[in-house]
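Running log. JK asked me to keep both predictions on one page so they can be read side by side. First protein, sequence followed by its tokens:
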Amino acid sequence: MSQPVLEETRNLSLSADEVLKLRADFPVLRQQVYGKPLVYLDNAATTQKPQVVIDRITDYYSHENGTVRRGVYKLSEQSTLAFDESRRKVARLLNAPSAAEVIFTRGTTEAINLVASSYGRAFIGAGDEIIVSAIEHHANIVPWQQLCLEKGAILKVIPVNDDGELIQDAYEALLSERTRLVAIGHVSNALGTINPVKAMIEKAHAVGAVVLVDGAQSTPHMQVDVQELDCDFFAFSGHKLYGPTGIGVLYGKMKQLEAMPPYQCGGDMIHSVSFEKTVFAKPPAKFEAGTPAIAEVIALGSAIDYLQAIGLGRIGAYEHELLQYATERISEIPEVRLIGTANEKAGILSFTIKGAHPHDIGTILDREGIAVRAGHHCAQPVMERFHVPATARASFSFYNTREDVDALIRAIHVVIQLFS
């Protein structure tokens, strides 16, 4: 396995040779699909796992498996130390003021639902307003929609222009003294648009609203600083960050977490229990009822170590170069329509091909060894806005290469020939 070098010792971007060395860390990329080398371009859905993460899970179950925080025996102590260190790694990744502000969840979806259920039910009432954007993942729409139905609150939507950029003048017009919460994605999973969340947070705070940022698509591709953003809540998923499935993170400002009631109740989230009264533990334990996903949390820490050794700034710079190359290549094909052409984008290309349904595109590309996503990407309002039933979506990682892009372009021409 290659040994990444710390970011400060290198130039900003990754070289082609470095990318090839890093690809060797991912065993799944060595295989063939239908007799052709696998080109994995569905990284917005989930990323592949480096051997170090796979090994960490195996090592934990082989040598350390014991419940955390509850045992005085050696295995439990080892597990607890590794578990707590992963929480500190997440805090450093996000530049959170305290590891106590890091809550482990099953993923971004559960993190958002935690805030909607806990903060929302406690602090949002009839006539209050919640703002989301027109390009959100369903996980950042439906919980707020249901909360509004329950509480009699009002859901407002920031419109998006033809390039896939949120219309900031319209956003400012939606903000009012009744705005209680703004929930926005850092990066659109369907379009790749990077939203100006820092400026949007500042405007929301000016009217007294709190802000949740869905960072599922940003955390793996850029350096996130929750203190600089000044967001109240920030959520991301481990499996999109080259870590295991079933683990995610909610960062919350301590003043918000302390004021919120528990999301779930059970073991390990209490200070004391009697039949007369229960006293809850302080955050983060207050929001982590039951036995946690111990192996997944520990392996997430290994994924963070791996990425930080490469450097998220270098990863983002390389992926931006790859996106530019892919955009240039695909824009040369007249039969292809790009959906989402924002000036600020992450490594996502959503597209349609004249005469071909996106599901057919995905199937044909698969036969050519190309793995892309085809569908509405859990963003049906986006599809409606751009008048398409679905799109094919290629999404990039630092382990992708220009040769992967070239293979995608060749496969697109196969689709065009079949439907011409």
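And the second, directly underneath as requested:
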Amino acid sequence: MLIAGAAWWVSGDPLRALAVLVVATPCPLILAVPVAIISGMSRAASLGVLIKSGGALERLARVRTAVLDKTGTMTSGEAGVVEIRTSDGIDPEEMLRLAASLDQASNHVSAEALVQSARERGMALSSPTDIVETPGSGVEGRINGRSLVVGGSDFVRSRCSSGNPYALGGDLPPGTAVVAVGIDGIVAGIILLSDQIRDDAHSTIDSFRAAGVTRFVLASGDHADAVRAAGLSLGVDEAIGDLLPAEKVDVVIAERRKASVMMIGDGVNDAPALAAADVGVAMGARGAAASSESADVVLLVDHLARLPAALLVAQRTRHIALQSVFAGLSLSLLAMVAAAFGYLPPVQGALLQEVIDVAVILNALRALSVPAEIRAKREE
């Protein structure tokens, strides 16, 4: 209005004021941001990452700290066999096969882990007979005519006439569960189970660092020793265990005082912390519904690597949106100056304004394309 009034007052020509007003529309601002944001959300969705709002996408682009849950997020969430220790003369593979064969009759979490591990190794499991299970302690039975007992160390030792599972259990890694095995009245050995780090966890953290995330905190309700061991393996800046849900919220709030925070979790106990973060990210592929409801971003596929890719998309989208806004408004300002000096009549000004609008829309639509960093990783 000031430019139009000044042009009219200096020149005495009302057409100059009209021309200025014609080209002085806020269309670049109105069009560029929504088009870019929707395009970025669409690109993230194609990667399997649901971003629920434009505001969430903009906050995701500014994230500098990641608070990570452990179980089910950075680990598989399921116990796996990490080591087999046997008494003299016992074949580790055969002991695992026999133990898994017997554990087919049990619904215990450790039993399911043994059975799955044996099947992954291609072992042929036998059918158990004469099964007697003591809930919470162990199971007894016969496999191919041999007497077998599988369970806790005290339970197995009480059922065997010789051998001691505790003699095999020195220097256990933190967070390891022990399953003892007795064969024909003799302690045959122990099988160590642990919730293992996801195969893609390390590469995901490296990708986050490359995308600009500078601090990582592992926050979990698991035992502190297990969390510290996982944190050491992952290379995070801080690992905190034995946390209640409210204490996870405190960790997120403390980190928010330093930088913009993204919280990644999958369980019901993570929901409050997800809501407290600048950006809450839920592992929707296998996580709890409560975490997905309270999160701003939901990972729809079980691939952690999609999250750094979505972060790159958010950063690129924000850059394109701002670029379109500033370029569009700058062109409009130049057109207003030209119109004020009489170089741009109203009709030509209207046509030029439409050209500017189309230009910023086309530029904003670049957010639909795959970022160069993601293309490079695919080629690798």
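Observation for JK regarding the second prediction: The longest strand covers residues 75-86.
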